[in-house]
Structures are given as structure tokens and as C-alpha cells.
Design a protein that fits this description.
The complex is a heterodimer. Chain A is α/β, with parallel strands linked by helices. Helices cover 16% and strands 48% of the residues of chain A. In chain A, β1 and β2 form a beta hairpin. In chain A, α4 runs antiparallel to α5. The radius of gyration of chain A is 20 Å and the shape is globular. Chain A starts with 19 loop residues before the first helix and ends with a helix. Chain B is globular and about 50 Å long. Chain B has a 6-stranded mixed sheet, sandwiched between helices. A 4-stranded antiparallel sheet of chain B has the order 2-1-4-5. Chain B has one domain: 3-Layer(aba) Sandwich (Rossmann fold). Chain B contains 9 helices and 12 strands. Helices cover 38% and strands 29% of the residues of chain B. In chain B, a hairpin with a 2-residue loop joins β11 and β12. Chain B starts with a strand and ends with a helix. By secondary structure, chain B is of the alpha/beta class. Classes of the chains: A alpha/beta, B alpha/beta. Chains A and B meet through α3 and α4 of A and α2, β7 and α3 of B. The structure holds adenosine-5'-diphosphate and magnesium ion. Chain A: Pfam families: SUFBD_core. Chain A: It comes from Sphingomonas canadensis. Chain A: This is SufD family Fe-S cluster assembly protein.
């Protein structure tokens, strides 16, 4: 579909950790069976369900409810986001409407798939959206989000593609007293780039973007997120955990910008990396740019290994080494996955992380 | 039950245990006392198999098998319990999850069926109650935010749930107020005073020995047992310190 792919250069600061070689290889990969049953990827939660196979909507396997399907342009200046045009989905809710949990499953069988999406919640509307990426190839997504006054969106995205590449670009505007929580889990074999630009546009907005990236072998995953506080009394949270095994690389760049009149901003960035082997790499880049004078912005960034004292404590109680490592690592990523509000979704994500650990450790 | 012969061990290349011998039979309680830095904790860690504690000579058998050949978790499954002088804090893992994993790992290793969630919870609640620990603390992350005394009580709750054959308790009495000391002492007697079990108490003070009466008291100095006696030796050490005894 994308014949001559123009990709961002690693010479650009925001793209220096991006694995565009893996993206290109995924886009050029020959098609083969996805090898997954879509039914197994929908969680046992009532609500609308949508299946996209290679970027095409599958009505026979979907119950879209309030979600509509149409061709859309990629209204973004982002180098990858702007490529995501074609058939896409829109969740648009009127004032005080509630959509429950919308599940969207994306399955790829190779090549590339481009899906634009739009979530627009009017005043006091509420929705939860869970997305799952499985199969192969390059999945490229642009999701534009607009939350009206007091609207609430809980978003949970898991990347469990066996291989290939997933690139996600979120562009969100959070209105007055509205709340956006987006949690990502990278627990598959695919490379990834999770890219977000969230503007806290209304007074008292709350925005959170975070998650856990688990990498192994030669895999590279990264998240690059910017929170822009444009109005007073906003709260933002960026809590990311990276676990890297073998010779893999996980990179986290989190940025918070506080505009001059965004007084009383409360921002928090917590970036932590765990190296399962010393051959692995975790890159962390917390950034703050503050122009207001009355703000509270906490940030922490640390990379370490599993605590040898804790490992011996578990072993001394009879827990075998592999299991002890899995428990400690799971606890480490639990901070991030624990931010998912819905228990069934949280448990499903935790189970994916657990399954990853069982193989990686 | 435990037979240590001429044990030599190094930590970071430095010899700390220098030919230590000790035999503990089923049904016995032994106390090891000694000055700071004598190697008491090193003995516990070496028996537990802590990485970095290298045995350079001697033998240790536990119930007739070579203890030193076993991985740390296998030693636990064989019935060894190490009560830590400084119990480790583990954020993100609840006490219940931790001890259930521990108990069921041991049970699996011994070819026993794991306990169900319900069975385990009942056992855990009973042990917490017996040791005067609030059942709510079972749900909290392991030792996180616990006071020194609460951590030691928690070690005893774990011991009660796991039910080991041999407990090596490293300064379980330090940091305890008098009520906690009594609870811990009673716990040790209740859990470990049995014909098929044994205890090695590592302690600085005589006061725990008022509650858990030892059959033998040993003095560990500079990596060796330098003197062995009965409970009266602990009283004598309390009065006179270590120097006259060693002289
Ligand atoms: N990790 C370590 N590295 C080097 N030396 C150590 C280490 N741990 C303990 N030691 C040394 O080993 C000796 C015995 O320590 P320890 O067994 O803790 O004594 P005790 O418990 O009797 O007070 C001390 O000299 C101590 O400084
Ligand atoms: Mg000590």
C-alpha cells in the first residue's frame, strides 16, 4: 500500500531511538496466516466489538454499536500518523452518553495496515476503549481524541503481535474537568513506537498516558509522549515501566510542557527501567519545560536490575529462581498496569505480562 | 538433623567462617551468641545458600543429605527456614501472594498437592492471629512500611504457615518490645518445639532465651564455635561479656 515509505530520520532527536528498520521490514514482509483466532482476543466483557483484519473492517465479526466506519483522511502532521488514512472508525458520543467498553481487535497477516480513528466525547460522556494488536506486519494507527467538559475516556491498548511493527500516534485534547487515561502494554514480539501528544486544554483537566514495554531478543520498543498543559489546575501522569531482556532495547521519552497561564499544574513523570540481562538497554528521557511559576512537577527516572536481596529472600522461602524473577518483574510492571480502572481489562493485561515473563525468564 | 563439620566460608573473597562445627539433633533448641562481626549471620546465609557466600571447606548434611549441593529454594523445600535479621521489603507483592507461592512451591517440590486459595487463606489467618498480627497486614506488600518489630513478627507468621523442620532464626528478637518478644517466643515454641523439629537461635541477648529455653548455648567468635554449654552459659555471657569466656 505504501510504496515509497518516507520515514523519519534517526538524526532527528525525537526519532533517535526509533527502529524504522524494523518498521520497514514489517511493511515489506510477505503475507502469511495471522495464526490467531480473533475470538480469543476479545475479552469476556459486554459491549461493542470491532474486528479489523489487515486494516479492513470485518462486519461479520463485529457488533459496532455506536461506533461508525468510514473512509477518513489522516489529519495529522505527524510523520507516521499522517500515513494512517483509509477506512477507519469513529466513536462519537453525545452529552452524558455512555458507551461502556468498546473492544477493537486488529489482526495483521503481513504488509502494512493503516487505520485512522476518532473519539469525540461531548460534555460528561464516558467510554472505555480496549484495543488489541495481534498477528504480523506493520500496523499504523492515528487516533484523534477530543473530550468535552467533564467527559471521561479510559483507553487500554495491548500490543501482542507475534512480530512486525506497531506504530501508534495519539493526538488528544482534554477539555475542562475531563479525564483521559491511556495505558499501553507492549508484550508481544513486535517492535513498536507509541507516540502521543496530549493537550490539557480546559481548566482542571486530567490526562494520563503510561504503560509497560517488555522487550526481548533483538526487539526495540519505545514510547514518546508529550503532555501539554495549556490551562490552569491541570493534572498529568506519565508512569512508564520498561523491562528489557537479552539484547533488546526499550526506550521511554516523556515530556511535560507547562504554558505560562497553566498555573497550579500538577505533573508527574515516573520512568523506570529493569534490565533482565546486562546486554539489554533501557533509554529514559524525562523532560520538563515549565513557563508558569506556581506548578508542582515531580519526575523520576531510574534503571536497575532485579534486587539480589529480594531474589534470595524469595528463594530462601522455597520459590525457584525463574519464578522469583517473574514475581519481582511482574510486581515492577504492576505499577503501570494497575492504572487500568476496569478489573477485567486489568487482569487480562496482567495475564499477558505474566505470559511474556514465563517465556522470557 | 543438621551436622556441620569444619565449615569454612568466604564472603567477597574474605574468610569469615574458619572451621565451624556444630551438630543439632531433632527435638533440640540451640542458641548461638557472639560479638558483632563474629560471623553469626554469615553462618545463617551460608546454610541458606545465599549467592556470594562461598563454601571453601567442610561439609554440611541436613537429614543425611548434602545441604551444600542444593539450590536455596531446594533447601527450603527440604525443610530449612531462615529467619532474616533484616527481612527484605518487596513492593508490589502481597504477603499472602508471597507466602502462598512459597508454600506451594515447596509442596510441589515434595510431590504434595498445592493448597487452594481458600485453604491457604484459612491457614494464613490462623497464623497471623496466633502471632498477634492484624490480618489486614497479610494483604499489604511484603514488609513494606512495616516497623522492625512487625517485620520480625511477619517472619514468624511465614514460619508458622510454612512449617519447616529446622529454623535458623537470625536475631529475630532484636527490635522487639516486650509484648512482641513474648509473642515471638511463644510462636517459636508452638511452631518448632516438637520431637521432629529443631531450632538454631542466633541472638545477642539472653532475654529471648527466657521464653525459648535452649538445650545448648554456643559462643561463636571469629568464625568458630569457641565454647558450648547449657542455658547457664547465656546468663554468664550476659553478666561477664564475651571476653572472659573466650579467655
Ligand atoms: N557482604 C559482605 N562483604 C564483605 N564482608 C562482609 C559482608 N557481610 C559481612 N561481612 C563481614 O563478615 C563478618 C561477619 O559478619 P556477620 O556474619 O554479619 O556477623 P554477625 O552476624 O556475627 O554480627 C564481619 O566482619 C563483616 O564485616
Ligand atoms: Mg548478624
Amino acid at each position: 500500500m505504501v510504496s515509497v515509505l518516507e520515514l523519519p530520520s534517526p538524526r532527528l532527536e525525537e526519532w533517535r531511538w526509533a527502529d524504522m528498520g524494523a518498521l520497514r521490514a514489517a511493511a515489506d514482509a510477505p503475507q502469511r496466516a495471522a495464526g490467531v483466532d480473533p475470538k480469543s482476543l476479545f475479552l469476556d466483557i459486554d459491549g461493542p466489538r470491532l474486528l479489523f483484519v489487515d486494516g479492513a473492517f470485518e462486519p461479520a465479526h463485529s457488533m459496532p454499536g455506536p461506533v461508525t466506519i468510514a473512509r477518513m483522511a489522516a489529519e495529522s502532521a505527524h510523520p507516521l500518523g499522517s500515513l494512517a488514512e483509509g477506512e477507519g472508525w469513529t466513536l462519537s458520543l453525545d452529552r452524558e452518553a455512555a458507551a461502556g467498553t468498546v473492544q477493537i481487535v486488529h489482526i495483521g497477516s503481513g504488509c502494512d495496515s493503516q487505520v485512522p480513528a476518532r473519539i469525540a466525547l461531548a460534555e460528561s460522556a464516558a467510554a472505555s476503549v480496549v484495543e488489541t494488536f495481534a498477528g504480523h506486519g506493520w500496523a499504523n494507527r492515528l487516533t484523534r481524541i477530543a473530550l468535552g467538559t467533564g467527559a471521561r475516556l479510559m483507553r487500554a491498548v495491548r500490543l501482542v503481535q507475534a512480530d512486525g511493527f506497531v506504530s501508534i500516534r495519539d493526538e488528544a485534547e482534554v477539555g475542562e474537568a475531563a479525564s483521559l487515561v491511556s495505558i499501553f502494554l507492549g508484550a508481544g514480539g513486535a517492535g513498536s513506537r507509541i507516540d502521543g501528544a496530549v493537550t490539557l486544554a480546559g481548566k482542571g483537566a486530567f490526562a494520563e498516558m503510561g504503560g509497560a514495554l517488555l522487550t526481548r531478543h533483538e526487539q526495540k520498543q519505545e514510547a514518546a509522549v508529550a503532555m501539554r498543559h495549556a490551562a490552569p489546575d491541570g493534572t498529568s501522569r506519565q508512569l512508564w515501566r520498561a523491562v528489557a531482556a537479552d539484547s533488546s532495547t526499550a526506550s521511554l521519552a516523556a515530556r511535560a510542557e507547562v504554558a505560562r497561564d497553566a498555573q497550579k499544574t500538577d505533573g508527574e513523570q515516573s520512568l523506570r527501567g529493569l534490565l533482565l540481562q546486562r546486554t539489554a538497554t533501557v533509554n529514559l528521557k524525562p523532560e520538563l519545560e515549565i513557563f508558569a511559576d506556581d506548578v508542582k512537577c515531580a519526575h523520576g527516572a531510574t534503571v536497575g536490575e532485579l534486587d539480589a536481596r529480594a531474589l534470595f529472600y524469595l528463594a530462601s522461602r522455597g520459590i525457584p529462581e525463574g519464578r522469583a524473577k517473574a514475581l519481582l518483574t511482574h510486581a515492577f510492571v504492576g505499577d503501570a498496569i494497575g492504572r487500568i480502572g476496569d478489573e477485567a481489562v486489568r487482569e487480562a493485561f496482567a495475564a499477558d505480562a505474566e505470559a511474556w515473563l514465563e517465556v522470557a525468564l | 538433623m543438621l551436622r556441620i563439620e569444619n565449615l569454612h566460608a568466604t564472603v567477597d573473597g574474605k574468610e569469615i567462617l574458619k572451621g565451624l562445627s556444630l551438630a543439632i539433633n531433632a527435638g533440640e533448641v540451640h542458641a548461638i551468641m557472639g560479638p558483632n562481626g563474629a560471623g553469626k549471620s554469615t553462618l545463617g546465609y551460608t546454610l541458606g545458600g545465599r549467592p556470594g557466600y562461598a563454601v571453601t571447606g567442610g561439609t554440611v548434611t541436613f537429614d543425611g543429605q548434602d545441604l551444600l549441593e542444593l539450590a536455596p529454594h531446594e533447601r527450603a523445600a527440604a525443610g530449612l527456614f531462615l529467619g532474616f535479621q533484616y527481612p527484605v521489603e518487596i513492593p508490589g507483592i502481597s504477603n499472602l501472594q508471597f507466602v502462598r507461592e512459597a508454600l506451594n512451591s515447596q509442596r510441589r517440590a515434595r510431590g504434595q498437592a498445592p493448597l487452594s486459595g481458600g485453604e491457604f487463606l484459612k491457614l494464613a489467618r490462623a497464623e497471623a492471629a496466633a502471632l498477634g498480627m492484624d490480618a489486614e497486614m497479610l494483604k499489604r506488600p511484603v514488609n513494606v512500611g512495616f516497623s522492625g518489630g512487625e517485620k520480625k513478627r511477619n517472619e514468624m507468621v511465614q514460619m508458622g504457615i510454612i512449617g519447616p523442620k529446622l529454623a535458623i532464626l537470625d536475631e529475630t528478637d532484636s527490635g522487639l518490645d516486650i509484648d512482641a518478644l513474648k509473642a515471638v517466643g511463644e510462636g517459636i515454641n508452638r511452631i518448632m518445639r516438637a520431637p521432629d523439629k529443631a531450632v538454631l537461635l542466633i541472638t545477642h541477648y539472653q532475654r529471648l532465651l527466657d521464653y525459648v529455653r535452649p538445650d545448648f548455648v554456643h559462643v561463636l567468635e571469629a568464625g568458630r564455635i569457641t565454647r558450648t554449654g547449657g542455658p547457664e552459659l547465656a546468663l554468664q555471657l550476659e553478666r561477664e561479656g564475651y571476653a572472659p569466656v573466650a579467655a
